[in-house]
Amino acid sequence: MTTGILLAIFAGLMLGLYALPEKFTKDFTYENTWSLFFLLTMFVVPIIASVTLIDGFADVFGNMPTAIWIKMGLTSFLWGIGVMMWSKAINHIGLSLGFSLFIGTVILIGSLLPFVVDGLPPNNVLLFILLGILIVLIGVILNGKAGLMREKDEAEEKVDITSTGKRSMTTGILIAVIGGLLATGFSYANAAGAPYLTEALKHYDNADWITGVAVMFPIFISGGIVMTAYFLWQLSTKKAWGDFSTPAFTKNFFLILIMAIFHYAASALFGYAASKLGASGNTVGYAIFNTSAVATAIVSGLMTKEWVKASPRARGALFGGLACMILGIIIIAYSKSLG
Fold first, then answer.
1. What pLDDT, in 10s, does the model give residues 259-274?
2. pTM exceeds 0.85
3. Which end of the chain has fewer beta carbons closer than 10 Å to its terminal beta carbon, N or C?
4. How far apart are alpha carbons 311 and 288 in whole angstroms?
C-alpha cells in the first residue's frame, strides 16, 4: 500500500509541473503551444512508449474485447474534451488556480466513478472516503473564492488583465469546472481497462509497471482525436500556422516536448500506482494523484508570481483551500488502511 501511495504522490508532482515550461515559450500563440503539446503527448509519446515497452503489443490490444474498447474510447473522448478545456482555463486564470479548480473537480467526481465499475467498498471505508471528498470540496470552493478575490485585487491595482493574456475570471472558473467534470472520464476508462490489460500482459511476461503504459494507450489515442480536430480548426481560423515559423521554434519544441513527456509519464505512473493499491485503488490513488498535482501547481504559480498582486486575504483563501484538499486526501488515504 505504501508503495502505491508514494507512486501516486510522485505522479502528481510530475502532473503539477508539466505545464510550467509553457510560461517560457516565445512567439507562440495559445494555439501553437497547445496544438503541438497535444500532438506529442496524445500520439507521439504514447505510441513510441507502448510499441517499445509492451511485449506482445499487437496481441494484447488485438484481443481486447470490443466492449472494453467502447467503454474506454467514449469516456476517454470526454476526457480529451476536458483536458482541452483545462488548457483554456490555465490560459484564462493562471497555473495555480486553473489546476486547483480543474483537478479539484476531477477529484470529487473521478474518485467516485470507479465505484460504478468496482462496486462500493465496506461501509467504514466508504464513510472516510466520502468525508475526505467533502473536505476536498470545501478546498475547491475556497480556491474559487481566492481566484475571484485575486481578480478584484488586480482590478484595484489597475492591472491590465487582458494584456497579460487573462480574461474573465468567472469564465475561466466555469471552463475549469466543466472541463474537470468531463475529464473524470479518465478515471472510468482506467478502471474499465486495467483488469483485462493486467491479465493480458502477464501472458507475455511484462513487468508490473507496464500496466500503466498499456492502460494509457487507448485512453490517450481516443482523447487525442477531439484535441486534434479542435486545434486544426483553431490554427486555421486564427491564421496561426505561420507563427510556427519563428527563430524560437527549436527552444519552444524542446519545452513543449518536456511538457508532453511529463504529462504522459504522470498518467502512466498513476495507472501503475492504482494497480498497486488493490481494491478501491482507483479511487484512493486518483485522489492522492490529483491533490499532489494541485499542491505542486499552486507552489509553481506562486514561484512564477501569479499571485504577486493578490491581497493577503486572497492568498489566505488559496492556502486554506490547499490545506483542506491535503487534509481530505489524508483522510481518503487513511480509508485504504481500513479496507
1. 999 989 888 888 778 7
2. no
3. N
4. 29
